[in-house]
Design goal:
50% of the residues lie in helices and 12% in strands. It is of the alpha/beta class. It has two domains: 2-63, Transferase, Pyrimidine Nucleoside Phosphorylase, Chain A, domain 3; 74-155 and 168-327, Pyrimidine Nucleoside Phosphorylase, Chain A, domain 2 (3-Layer(aba) Sandwich). Strands 3-2-1-4-5-6-7 form a seven-stranded mixed beta sheet, with helices on both faces. The radius of gyration is 19 Å and the shape is globular.
Length: 343
């Protein structure tokens, strides 16, 4: 392992097998946290590669708990985070819209690490219990078609790594790997990354990991979501092909809006934003969710184009189905809490 650490310090890329060894080393309980922090910092300084990301994702998934879902086409729209732009929880809001449109959503997420409110934080502010069992997660997926997999619950080996990441307080390779380690078997995915120059490489990682169809996006200023504020950079994974394309809000039938118009706050503030837009209040928040849910529907194969997906997303909200999904998950959480209190 010493030779691998030295190689990274010299800003040399690791081959897949070397990163497999390094990943297993990071997850060992006796590996000093200080050494892990140094290794992650050196990787970030060097710049991570597709093979390094794929290797870490493979090891991390091997340590994840099994989630025995029935056969279906499940999708995740978790992004990498780490863009530092303090937007509201776009992908979490979009997940309810996608579920309302009939997509089977297995949404992976975590607490805030380099943002004001992570997906788990805003879910709890909405009244959704994140600390649920695997059996409860499967039940929720099968009854409502949407469930949220809180990363520490399904990745028990992540606890020490999480402590290191919080100590560092800045994005690492684990931000890139997060969306790739959902323990639910995914054949399709829509994910955002905060690195416009890494979109093609990230798409190749998804292809290595067996996604038949997926979309990677990096928005203006490195936003890890699609944005109304200019040109968004994409790569579509379609079986054996990697297809780059770009898209603006206007291309999808929406209007330009600056990033300042979708700033978020703490978990309670973001939860209030989410409830209002899911109830149909139109704003830049609303249109941003339409755009991202529309891309998700295109990635899932329900929509022929992103523009068609945007209209399907709009119908999911205005029909009340998206908000119904939120209320159903909240009600499920309340039932769990009642049972726990009664025990």
């Amino acid at each position: 392992m010493e030779a691998i650490q030295q190689k990274v310090q010299l800003r040399e890329h690791l081959i897949y097998e070397e990163m497999l060894e390094a990943a297993n080393w990071m997850f060992q309980d006796d590996t000093p946290k200080e050494e892990i922090a140094c290794f992650l910092t050196a990787l970030s300084t060097k710049g991570e590669t597709a093979h390094e990301v794929a290797a870490l994702a493979t090891v991390m998934r091997s340590f994840a708990l099994n989630v025995p879902t029935r056969a279906s086409i499940y999708m995740d729209n978790c992004g990498t985070g780490g863009d530092g732009l303090n937007t509201f929880n776009i992908s979490t809001a979009s997940a309810f819209v996608l579920a309302g449109a009939g997509v089977q959503m297995a949404k992976h997420g975590n607490r805030k690490i380099s943002s004001a409110s992570g997906s788990a934080d805003v879910l709890e502010a909405l009244g959704i219990h994140t600390n649920i069992t695997i059996e409860q997660t499967v039940e929720l997926l099968e009854t409502e078609g949407i469930a949220f997999l809180y990363a520490p619950n399904v990745h028990p080996k992540l606890k020490r790594i999480g402590e290191v990441r919080r100590y560092l307080g800045k994005p690492t390779i684990f931000n890139l790997v997060g969306p790739l380690t959902n323990p639910v078997s995914l054949s399709t995915q829509f994910t955002g990354i905060n690195r416009p120059n890494f979109v093609m490489e990230y798409a190749s990682v998804l292809q290595m990991l067996g996604r038949e169809r997926a979309i990677v996006v990096s928005g203006p200023q490195g936003l890890d979501e699609a944005s109304l504020a200019g040109q968004n950079t994409f790569v579509l994974v379609d079986k054996g092909d990697l297809i780059p394309f770009s898209l603006t809000a206007e291309d999808a039938g929406l209007s330009y809006a600056p990033l300042e118009s979708i700033r978020g706050g703490n978990a309670d503030e973001n939860a209030a934003i989410m409830r209002k837009l899911l109830a149909g209040k139109q704003s830049a928040y609303f249109d941003t969710v339409l755009l991202n849910a529309g891309i998700g529907l295109f990635s899932y194969g329900k929509a022929e184009t992103v523009k068609e997906g945007v209209e399907m997303a709009r119908d999911s909200i205005f029909s009340g189905r998206a908000l119904q999904k939120l209320e159903a998950v909240v009600a499920f959480s309340e039932r769990i809490k009642e049972v726990e209190v009664g025990q």
